[in-house]
Design a protein that fits this description.
By secondary structure, this protein is an alpha+beta fold. 21% of the residues lie in helices and 29% in strands. Strand 5 and strand 6 form a beta hairpin. InterPro entries: DUF1963, YwqG-like_sf.
C-alpha cells in the first residue's frame, strides 16, 4: 500500500486526473522479487548443481536459478504455479542466447548433469566472461507489487478491453511506475520490464503465433496477450554489456504444467 500511495501521489503531482490514476492502479499484480540477500525467506538459489530426472534431456543452456515452489508463500504471485517441486530456469544472457524452464516434481528421482552445456563451453573466449558474471548463492524473497512498464499493453476485460494507449495517460503512468521501481535480479510473475521498448508478454505472444503459422511451433497458440503471462525475468549485468531473459507462457500451459511450451526472449544490451 505504501508503494501504491507513492505512485498515486507522484501521478497526481504530474497533473494526471485521479480517475485515470485509479484506473491504472487497478492493473496492479503481485510479484516475487528474488535477490541475493535480504530479510525474507530463502526460496531457491542462483546457480548450483543441475539436478534433473533421468528422462529429461541434457540442458542446452546453463542453469541460472532453481526455485523451490513450496517455499513461495500463497498469494505472492497470481500465477498458477505448481504447489511443490522445483522450477529450473536455464538461459544464456547474450546476444544469441535463449533459454528453457523445467519443472521437477516433488519426490522425482534426479541425477546430476554437467554444469556447462556442450553448446556453451566455459573455456571459449565468447562464453567465459559471461559465466564469470552469473550470480551464485541463495535467493531471498521479497513480496512486492507490479504495474506495467510499457504503455502498449492490453487491458483485461470490460470496461477496459481496448489496447493501450486507449488509456489517455498510459505512457505517463508507466513512467511513474518505472521511477518507483527498485528492480531485482530475478522476478517471478508480474509485468515484464522492457523488451526492446515493448511489452515482453505481448511480443512473445506475437512471435509464438508467427512460429505456429510457419510450422515451427505446435499449437494451440493464442494471439491474445491476455492469455499469456510472465513466468520469470532474470537480469544479468556485466562490464560493457548485459541482458534480460524473459520466460513467458500461456496461462493454459502453465496450469497444465507444460513448461516445455514456454516462450523465451533475450533482450541484449551491449
Amino acid at each position: 500500500m505504501q508503494i501504491l500511495d507513492q505512485i498515486r501521489a507522484e501521478a497526481l503531482e504530474r497533473g494526471i486526473p485521479a480517475s485515470d490514476v485509479e484506473r491504472w492502479l487497478g492493473l496492479v499484480r503481485p510479484c516475487a522479487l528474488l535477490t541475493e540477500g535480504g530479510d525474507g525467506p530463502v526460496v531457491g538459489r542462483f546457480g548450483g548443481p543441475v539436478m534433473l530426472p533421468a528422462g529429461v534431456e541434457d540442458p542446452v543452456y546453463p542453469l541460472l536459478a532453481t526455485i523451490d515452489c513450496a517455499a513461495l508463500p500463497a498469494g505472492v504471485t497470481d500465477l498458477a504455479l505448481p504447489p511443490d517441486g522445483r522450477l529450473l530456469f536455464f538461459g544464456f544472457p547474450e546476444e544469441n542466447g535463449m533459454g528453457d524452464v523445467v519443472h521437477v516434481p516433488e519426490g522425482a528421482a534426479v541425477e546430476e548433469r554437467a554444469r556447462y552445456p556442450r553448446t556453451f563451453p566455459p573455456d571459449e573466449d565468447s562464453y567465459g566472461p559471461v559465466y564469470r558474471e552469473l550470480p551464485e548463492g541463495d535467493l531471498y524473497l521479497t513480496a512486492d507489487v507490479s504495474l506495467p512498464f510499457i504503455g502498449e499493453i492490453e487491458l483485461p476485460g470490460p470496461p477496459w478491453a481496448e489496447p493501450l494507449p486507449g488509456h489517455p495517460h498510459s505512457e505517463e503512468m508507466a513512467e511513474v511506475w518505472a521511477d518507483q521501481w527498485g528492480g531485482a535480479p530475478l522476478l517471478i510473475g508480474g509485468y515484464g520490464t522492457d523488451y526492446n521498448g515493448g511489452d515482453p508478454v505481448r511480443i512473445a505472444a506475437r512471435c509464438a503465433v508467427k512460429e505456429e503459422k510457419a510450422g515451427r511451433r505446435p499449437g494451440p497458440v493464442s494471439p491474445r496477450a491476455e492469455d499469456w503471462v510472465l513466468l520469470a525475468e532474470c537480469s544479468v549485468d556485466r562490464p560493457g554489456a548485459g541482458a534480460t531473459i524473459f520466460w513467458v507462457i500461456q496461462r493454459d500451459d502453465l496450469s497444465a504444467r507444460r513448461f516445455d511450451r514456454a516462450y523465451v526472449l533475450v533482450d541484449w544490451n551491449p
